[in-house]
C-alpha cells in the first residue's frame, strides 16, 4: 500500500494519535506516497466529466491537501485556481508543487469566501466531517460560489458486503470510534459516514440542485452499477446577477 518513500509505521501511529490538523501536518511531506492521495484515475475521470460542463472561470479545491485536485481545476478553469485547507503542512507541499495557484488556510466548516468561484471541487474529504458538520461545510461552499456555480465531488459506491473492502472499511471505522472514545484530541476520519443519499439530502438542504452522473471510466460493479458517481450540485442562477466575471468578491486570498 505504501511506497518506500511513504511514512513508516511509527510515523503513521504518531499521526493517528494527533488531531486531524496536526496529523496531516506530520504526514504532509510523505502524503503523496500513501494510498490516501486521490488516485490519478479519479482525477482524470472527474476532469473529463467537467470538461463537458465548462469552461469555468475561477475554481476552488475544498480541503485541497497537497494539491492533487489542481490538475482538475487547471484543465477546466480559464482564470485563477485556489486551494483551501486547514493544515499548514499540506498547504506548504501544495504551494511548492503549484506555485501559480492561490492558497488559503482556513477551516472548511467556515469558508471565508463569498460569491467568487464558478466551480468548486473536493476529493476524498467528506470522511473528515461528522454528519452533523456537513451542513456547515456545504453552506460555506454554497456561499463561495457565484450564481449558477457548480460544486462537484466524486463518491464511490459502497463495497459489496462480501468484499474485503467492506470489512476493511468497517473495521477501520470501528477502530476510529474506539480511538476517539478513549483518546483526545479526536481524529475524525471515517469511510462509511457519507453515503450518497445522505450527502444528496444535505446538499439539497443547503440550496443546491443535485444530480449525479456515473464516472464510467472507473468501471462497474458486478451488478452493473457504476463504481463511482460524480455529484453535481448546482447553485441556482440569479437572473439579476450580471456582474462581470472578474468581480473579486472573495474575502481571503493568501
TrEMBL record:
Keyword Nuclease: no
Protein name, entry field: Class I SAM-dependent methyltransferase
Organism phylogeny: Bacteria, Bacillati, Actinomycetota, Actinomycetes, Micromonosporales
Region: Disordered, residue numbers: 235-254
Alphabetized InterPro entries for the sequence: Methyltransf_25, SAM-dependent_MTases_sf
GO molecular function terms listed in the Swiss-Prot or TrEMBL record: methyltransferase activity
Organism, as annotated: Micromonospora costi
Keyword check for Transcription: no
UniProt cross-references to CDD domains, sorted A to Z: AdoMet_MTases
Amino acid at each position: 500500500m505504501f511506497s518506500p518513500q511513504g511514512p513508516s509505521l511509527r510515523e503513521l501511529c504518531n499521526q493517528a494519535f494527533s488531531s486531524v490538523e496536526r496529523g496531516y501536518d506530520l504526514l504532509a511531506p510523505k502524503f503523496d506516497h500513501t494510498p490516501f492521495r486521490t488516485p490519478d484515475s479519479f482525477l482524470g475521470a472527474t476532469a473529463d466529466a467537467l470538461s463537458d460542463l465548462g469552461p469555468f472561470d475561477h475554481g476552488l479545491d475544498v480541503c485541497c491537501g497537497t494539491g492533487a485536485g489542481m490538475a482538475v481545476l487547471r484543465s477546466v478553469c480559464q482564470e485563477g485556481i485556489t486551494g483551501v485547507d486547514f493544515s499548514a503542512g499540506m498547504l506548504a507541499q501544495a504551494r511548492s508543487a503549484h506555485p501559480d495557484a492561490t492558497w488559503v488556510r482556513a477551516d472548511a466548516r467556515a469558508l471565508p469566501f463569498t460569491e467568487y468561484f464558478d466551480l468548486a471541487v473536493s476529493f476524498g474529504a467528506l470522511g473528515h466531517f461528522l454528519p452533523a458538520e456537513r451542513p456547515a461545510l456545504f453552506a460555506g461552499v454554497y456561499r463561495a460560489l457565484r450564481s449558477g456555480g457548480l460544486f462537484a465531488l466524486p463518491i464511490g459506491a459502497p463495497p459489496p458486503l462480501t468484499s474485503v473492502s467492506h470489512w476493511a472499511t468497517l473495521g477501520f471505522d470501528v477502530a476510529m470510534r474506539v480511538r476517539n472514545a478513549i483518546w483526545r484530541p479526536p481524529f475524525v476520519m471515517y469511510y462509511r459516514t457519507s453515503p450518497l443519499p445522505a450527502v444528496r439530502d444535505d446538499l439539497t438542504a443547503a440550496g443546491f440542485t443535485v444530480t449525479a452522473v456515473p464516472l464510467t471510466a472507473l468501471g462497474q460493479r458486478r451488478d452493473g452499477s457504476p463504481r463511482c458517481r460524480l455529484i453535481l450540485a448546482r447553485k441556482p442562477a440569479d437572473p439579476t446577477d450580471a456582474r462581470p466575471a472578474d468581480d473579486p468578491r472573495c474575502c481571503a486570498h493568501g
